[in-house]
Known about the structure:
The chain is an all-alpha fold. About 75% of the residues lie in helices and about 0% in strands. A hairpin with a 3-residue loop joins β1 and β2 (about 185). α2 runs parallel beside α8 and α4 (about 115-140) packs parallel to α6.
Amino acid sequence: MTPNESIPAITAFKGSLLRKQLLLVIIFAVLTLASLALPMSELSIPMQHFLPLHTVLEFVTIAVAILVFSTVWHTPTKLTSGTLIVIGMSLFGAAWLDAFHALSYKGMPDFITPSSVEKAIDFWLAARYVAAAGLLLASVRPTLPPVSVLVRYGALGIFTLVNLVVAWLIVAHEADLPHTFIEGVGVTPFKTQLEWVIFGMMALAAWRYYRLARASDDDFLPLMFSAAAVGAMGETYFTQYHMVSDFQHVMGHSFKLVSYLLIYQAMFIVSVRLPFKQLEQRKQALLQANNPISGS
């Protein structure tokens, strides 16, 4: 197959991948609307069962986030755009805050200070803002040039410092932070507003990725579109709830896990599959270039 003959096949595959991701987003949207129409916030899971489930969901998601970071970090510098570094670093930073969130959840042993609902929520919000900001920035600047090793380590240092400062603020000054949850009442309007802002950031990132995917044959973009869209829908489960161990939490955390898995799939395509694909294309080009020589 010549390069010109392969163009329709590539275009068809790109369209097929985008359609598949659009269908996936529609399925999750229907599931979200259907589940939110049910009184899921009233369906409580006993804490002795919910706590292990929550911990497993969080740490599996954290493992996926670290896989995303590792995939980007260990890809040769010249092959890694600054955009991928932004996504990898933001998920890496969010992973540590998510770990602090899981360890601070109500019912868990003391994490430096006693675990509580609001302490866990504060870490949750910090992690979601870091992840959402990374996805939004990457969607706005999708073609940042590769960065040097020095810049990589500098960015890693900055994310580490920010995480430490945020952790110190939440652990040492929890009582001074705005209230996010009231026992017997539920989340505060302040917390609801913060969740809707996260939803907006991720929805905007999804819209940006969708537009980019329609205009490009890059397999990375349709997957990032669905990842951001599913992540945005997952936030809706945390805008209103009265208990911290209901089915809404299970749904929201499950959506987050799916979102991270889609990001990992996108990163795998760019950082692992794409270099092999490029190598194969160069091999075929060399073989075609040598054919006239062999035949002469």
